[in-house]
Design a protein that fits this description.
Blueprint lengths: L1 H19 L3 E8 L4 E3 L5 E8 L15 E9 L10 E7 L8 E5 L4 E4 L6 E2 L4 E8 L6 E3 L5 E9 L1
Antiparallel strand pairs: 1-11, 2-10, 3-9, 4-7, 4-8, 4-11, 5-6, 5-9
Length: 157
């Protein structure tokens, strides 16, 4: 009986100490989108990349610089004169140039995407907000109405 109590105490203390080691962190990146060139027959495209750099993690303890994504919050802009505008949030693994996956978002909106949950968080990962405008028959520049931001939410392993 005494062995059983000691074993139960040991197992429960290990379980609690394991839970105490996981911490939640956020890294926010903000940019002002460039104006979009809209061609008369091809439309327009604007893309902003938000990369996590080593210097973004300088205030985070060494063992907490990597983890698992638990969500990505965003604030997206909208472009003037763009009734046909669409937007998506894309996720890139560390140091790659091809998106792993994308999720449709609403232009000029803020929200959180959970599509990328479970992906690895570490220096070098990137998210992008991509805006597309269909051809309008006229060549012009479309201006963004505000800056955009991405917040990576992650928990340590």
């Amino acid at each position: 009986m005494k062995k059983m109590s000691i074993m139960a105490l040991l197992v429960s203390s290990c379980a609690f100490s394991g839970q105490a080691l996981a911490d939640d962190f956020t890294i926010t990146k903000e940019k002002q989108p460039s104006r979009m060139l809209v061609l008369s027959s091809a439309g327009g495209l604007s893309s902003e990349l938000f990369s996590v750099l080593h210097m973004d993690l300088r205030d985070i303890p060494y063992k907490s610089k990597t983890g698992t994504i638990t969500g990505i919050s965003y604030v997206s802009a909208s472009f003037s004169d763009s009734a046909t505008e669409t937007a998506e949030l894309c996720f890139f693994r560390a140091y790659t140039s091809t998106p792993l996956m994308c999720s449709e978002i609403t232009p000029n909106f803020s929200g959180m995407v959970t599509t990328f949950n479970g992906q690895e968080f570490k220096s070098g990962i990137t998210a992008s907000i991509v805006h597309r405008v269909e051809a309008t028959g006229s060549f012009h520049f479309a201006e963004p109405n505000r800056s955009e931001s991405i917040t990576f939410h992650y928990t340590t392993d």
